[in-house]
Design goal:
binds zinc ion; single chain; 7 helices; 0% strand
Length: 173
């Protein structure tokens, strides 16, 4: 899912737990719930518009990504002071998979190309990616969902998550 969707869930969870003040329990719960929400939100990625490759010649793809990226940056700027922790932990699974694991793989490839060309050899931390777990969960429990990764209508479930988080905040505050 898009960063803004995880940001919204992180902000929502932070506000939800505000009555706990700045106790360690609140930070612990924010961490656990944000990682869980990242898992569940990504599990729904199948019903959202998410073409695997960039489609620069597709006006819809470009427009949607402009909205999402501007929205993500605006959301980060507006809320980062108050909800930095929740927003950060809501992105931990992506930082772990795309940043750390892929980063180490790229580093290894660069410094030892011969090893990486060996297709039989397991990649660094193969099978230990957060999103591999998400994929397995989705296949096991959500296989009935339609695949909207290439359908424009797939932006609606993502927008629905934003609205749910915003309404949730309005409702509890
Ligand atoms: Zn993710």
């Amino acid at each position: 899912m898009q960063a803004i969707t995880h940001f919204f869930s992180g902000i929502f969870i932070s506000i939800l737990l505000e009555p706990l003040g700045t106790t360690w329990l609140r930070f612990l719960l924010i961490t656990g719930l944000c990682i869980l929400s990242h898992f569940l939100i990504d599990a729904l990625a199948k019903i959202t518009y998410h073409p695997a490759d960039a489609k620069w010649d597709d006006a819809f793809w470009v427009s949607w990504h402009v909205i999402v990226y501007i929205g993500s940056v605006a959301c980060a700027i507006i809320f980062i002071r108050s909800y930095f922790f929740g927003m950060l932990v809501s992105m931990i699974p992506d930082i772990y998979d795309w940043g750390i694991i892929r980063g180490v793989r790229a580093y290894k490839r660069k410094h030892n190309p011969a090893v990486e060309q060996d297709q039989e050899k397991k990649q660094f931390m193969e099978g230990w990616e957060f999103h591999v777990l998400v994929d397995k969960f989705r296949e096991r429990f959500l296989s009935f969902l339609p695949d909207l990764n290439h359908e424009a209508v797939g932006i609606l479930p993502e927008i629905a998550i934003w609205i749910t988080c915003i309404l949730g905040v309005v409702f509890i505050s």
